[in-house]
Amino acid sequence: MGWNRVAVAGAGLIKFGELFEQSYEQMAAGAFQAAVANVDRGVEPEQIDGVFVATQRGTLWGQEGIGGNTVPSAIGLAGVPCTRIENACPSGSDAFRVGAMAVASGVHDVVLVIGVEKMRDKSTDEGLLSRAAAGHPILTRGETAPVLFAPFATRHMNDFGTTREMLASVAVKNHFNGARDPYAHFQNEITVENVLDSPPVCHPLHLLDCCPQTDGAAATILVNADRATEFTDKPVYVAGFGVATDHPYLHEKQSFTGLKATAIASERAYRMAGVDPSQIDSAEVHDCFTITEILDVEDLGFFDKGKGGIASLEGETSLTGRIPINTSGGLLAKGHPIGATGVAQLTECWWQLRGEAGERQVEMRNGYALQHNVGGRGSGVSVVNILTTNR
Amino acid sequence: MTSPVRVLAVGAAAPARRLSATDVAAAWGRGGGRGQVGVCAPDEDVLTLAAEAASRAMAASGLENDIVDGLWWGTTRPPFAEGPSHAVLASALGLSAHSGGALFSGSPHAGMDALLGAYDAIAAGSAQVALVVAADALVPGPGTTFEERAGGGAAAAVLVSEGGHASLPARVTRTHPFLDRYRSEADAGTRDLYDARLFREEIFLPIVQEVGEQLAALEIDEWSLPDPDGRLGATAARKLGGGAPASANVYAAIGDTGAAAPLLGALGSLDAARTVAVVGFGGGRATGIVINADGPVRGAATVGDAWAGGQSISYAEALRARGQLEATGVPIPMGVPPESALFVRGAEEMLGLLGARCVDCGTINTPPTIHPYCISCGSTKFVLVSLARRGVVHTFVVNHTMPPPFEAPLPLAVIDLADGARVMLQVIGDGSDMRIGVEVELVLRRYAFERGVPVYGFKARTIADATAKSSEE
Question: Of A26, A128, A166, B26, which has the most beta carbons under 10 Å away?
């Protein structure tokens, strides 16, 4: 059952936040050191023969091409092959998938997958919000990130009776979890009222419905499954993955109550892993906005379409719920340094599967954890990875 | 009274915002101030006003836009000081790529020039259908008394060689090379009159009276007269032996609309059999034209709707909208420069609102240049179609968080058009009228003023219940 040709030997991340004091290179080094330190039986840097780096944005002003040739030098591995993966918000999870395929192919023995992102070196206006003026001059004019998801909230609320309180319950839960994650950007609990009373950002989403702008880096070390025990006492395997694309503009969507790319990507991942949604013990899903998590848990098959909001409100996705979602705090509380996000989610899955998630540890009955990202123009790409302790 | 030129239909447009003259006076430490003026919203300008008036006139005419032989457009200030103003408007109106016409500018007299130019083309037989637009969105110099009077608006008329309910039996022009309101290359805004008494006694009244008296030979029922200061229009009317001119209500609602003023002041009177005298003035010239309606001209009965209502704004908002008050710092540049290849490839599909209809499954793909394959069935066979201009909101957002030059709140909506196409567009207004299922129409607006270049595209506007009902009737 499952693919299981590759194992995660180590994973780690740096504390997420507004890391004005750290360079892109210093963040990368921190994540690399954290992942190496978490390899039970150790890994020597010279054993690493391939690096896949996920960086979505230019790390210096206007220098979009940086990353692929910067990271090996920054982590003391100059000379090692390195390829940059850019695939919008799923960049990190896609780099992980590509890294796993590189190991499974036999071309590489030990691969480092590292996600690094500087979100805060540019001002909010020149950085995150500048996309209002990017892209097509008419089609996408005014389209900041929440514009990609808020129309789904409007329609989900209209069609299924989803309420702002239900949306808010996602943020409340993820902040609760983030307060128990030492790596999270935000480590404070919030209330439904805090979310409802926060300023409007993009109707119907308010400030606390949105993830923050966060700098961060995360890394995983992948080895051939047959060699897993050379490196680790508690192997975690790559059970399966799936990627899907969708039309890139919002007006090309047939439905505004779900994200098609997520549904297709997860179907592929479940099939490859030989599991169904009911066997997943915990999941790190893409909650860039509260509505996104509600769409995700439906599109991933955890809840029927239209039931994601009420499920969240009733605690079914909490640490003790039927299917704990975003135990790390998610993008909403842990943060969303784009290239690092997927790799950090996979690190949380790795900890949950190994029973190392501390006070946010959930019960892993079946030994499966799922990681998911969705993003890009019109949420046109989604990646799902499934990890397992079963082989 | 006959002429070789007939008026088939008319239309008008006015900006959405109103600025009180009292607020302008108070901003400069003056008391008083009478009336109000129309001011463009940040996404309106002289071209969008012209497009709206022309679209209304064309809709009233019942003609297809692509049979128009030419566009004769008069405006004091074309939106591109040196550039494709005429071509952009013609394209946005869906006129034929082979249509002719001319752009007249340089003074408020340009509106009369456009009317005379179209008249001559029809009379000469070089055009059978001529679209005339007179439009202005004046930009007065801050601190001038003209600021209390300078408004905006547009008037349009469809002229034909036969048919229609009005003719143009008489015209007269008087030139006198003086300076009145003036703007040099170095001025952003228009200057005041040098001496109001000099202007009144030696320039305005003698010339307007002379032109008017020649027209008065034809038993005039209504007058449209220039009114540069809020008094001279009434004074001129008295000297011509009439009461308040028909144009007075337009000046009261939206101020001095420059090149648009003469026609705007006359169109409403064409809703019944009447003889209307129109006098236009500016740039050292005055021209008078008589329009003789033998019955209601199409569109005339509703032109007044264009300047009814309006939303009050502050003096500071007016300055911002006119580009006279700008935030410190550099606004976020548009990712695609307006002179670049995407605008060349996309000019027709953006201004003409085109879609690619799949020959195999009927799905309309928009915009065509980014869809080599149908999003529904994968076919590569398409026909270009002009998209429907009405639709229903499927879902929407209201964006409150954007950097300059954007102004929040900005609604954006996914719209299902009447022809089955789905589009996503910005929506006019603050979003308070947005809900799923609301009916919208698409109108031309200025999406950006980028590196000194206006960028135009279509936006959605909710159709008020009353308007929706009247259009169904």
Answer: A166
Note the ipTM here: 0.95
In the numeric block, which tokens belong to residue A356?
Answer: 């190392």
Helix (H) or strand (E) run with residue B356 in it: strand B354-358
A304 touches chain B (CB under 8 A): no
With CA atoms as reference, report the closest residue to B400 among A142, A166, A168: A142
Instruction: Give, as one character, the DSSP assignment of residue B370.
Output: G
CA distances from A250 to A90, A256, B365 (A): 18, 9, 12
Measured distance CA(B105)–CA(B114) in Å, rounded: 9
What are the tens digits of pLDDT across the range A40-85? 999 999 999 999 999 998 666 666 667 788 899 999 999 999 999 9
Helices (H), B260-367: 261-267, 315-321, 341-351
Which residues of chain A neighbour B342 with C-beta distances below 8 Å? Answer: 136-137
3-state secondary structure of B111: helix
Instruction: Spell out which residues of chain B touch residue A152, defining contact as CB-CB under 8 Å.
Output: 395
Taking the C-alpha atoms of residue B61 and residue A363, their distance in angstroms, rounded to an integer, is 73
Judged by DSSP in three states, A319 sits in coil
**Cross-sheet strand order for the sheet of B17-20:** B36-39, B17-20, B311-313
Dihedral sign for Cα atoms in the order A308, A312, A318, A322: negative
Of A138, A147, A247, the CB nearest to B397: A147
Is the torsion defined by CA of A353, A355, A360, A366 positive or negative?
Answer: positive
Q: Residue range A328-355: average pLDDT?
A: 98
**pLDDT (mean) for B99-115:** 97
Residue in A closest to B427 by C-alpha: A142
| Sheet containing A6-13: order of strands | A82-85, A50-54, A110-117, A216-224, A6-13, A236-245, A381-388, A368-375, A282-284
Distance CA A171, CA A317 (A): 12
* Structure-block tokens of residue B260: 């648009």
The pTM of the full predicted model, rounded to 2 decimals, is 0.94
Beta strands (DSSP E) in chain A are: 6-13, 50-54, 82-85, 110-117, 200-203, 205-206, 216-224, 236-245, 282-284, 368-375, 381-388
What is the b/e burial string over B5-20, where b = at least 16 CB atoms within 10 angstroms of the residue's CB?
Answer: bbbbbbbbbbbbbbbb
Measured N-to-C along each axis, helices B205-215 and B232-239 cross at an angle, to the nearest 10 degrees, of 40
Tell me, yes or no, if B390 comes closer than 8 A to chain A by beta carbon: no
**Token pair for residue A239?**
């059970």
Q: How many residues does chain A have?
A: 391
List all residues 6 or more positions away from B88 whose beta carbon is below 8 Å from its beta carbon: B47, B79, B80, B351, B456
Residue-level pLDDT at A61: 64
CA distance linking residue B400 with residue A142, whole number of Å: 10
The torsion angle over the Cα atoms of residues B295, B297, B300 and B302, rounded to 10 degrees, is 90
d(CA B91, CA B79): 15
Does A137 reach chain B within 8 Å, measured CB to CB?
A: yes
- CA-CA distance, B294 to B262, in Å (whole number)? 20
Q: Which among A183, A228, A214, A213 has a CA at the least distance from the CA of A34? A: A183
In this structure, the strands spanning B70-74 and B100-104 are parallel
Token pair for A238: 């790559």
Cβ-based contacts under 8 A for chains A and B: 117
CB-based contact B367 A139, cutoff 8 Å: yes
Touching check for B343 and chain A: CB below 8 Å?
yes
Cβ within 8 Å, pair A154-B402 = no
Over the stretch A265-310, which tens digit does the pLDDT of each residue have?
Answer: 999 999 999 999 999 999 999 999 999 999 999 999 999 999 999 9
Residue B366 to residue B374: CA distance in whole angstroms: 10
